[in-house]
Amino acid sequence: MRELPVVACSLSAGERPERRARWRALLEGALLERREIPAGVRLVLASGGGVEQELRALAALERHCCAFASFEVGNANGRVTLDVTSSPDGVAAVRELFS
Fold first, then answer.
1. How confident is the model over 64-91, as pLDDT tens digits?
2. 3-class SS of residue 73
């Protein structure tokens, strides 16, 4: 019997509203583009105003609670990117998180 990867978030129900609010505030103010990539999703955000710092902070938090996914932040051409990827079993969950 093969072991299946766990595709779950370890945040408690009490922690989720605050985390959602932080993501919502960041994305509502800075999101320029969302597109699917082969193993997940890429978000492109306008930089400035603390966007990169907040994105890096949120990505670090997500790495702890959503171990099934990878959160990589980049910065190029005045834009900040977040690539969220996963194994094939977690791609749908990643795309749903950032739909």
1. 888 889 999 999 888 999 999 999 989 9
2. strand
Q: What is the pTM of this model?
A: 0.88
Q: How far apart are alpha carbons 42 and 40 in whole angstroms?
A: 7
Partner residues linked to 35 by β-bridges: 42
Buried b / exposed e over 5-36, threshold 16 CB at 10 Å, is: eebebebeeeeeeeeeeebeebbeebeeeeee
Q: How far apart are CA 4 and CA 88, in angstroms?
A: 11
Would you call 80 exposed, middle or buried from its count of C-beta atoms within 10 A (0-12, 13-18, 19+)? Answer: buried
The DSSP code for 6 is P
Instruction: Cite the beta strand spans of the chain per DSSP E.
Output: 31-37, 40-46, 69-76, 79-86
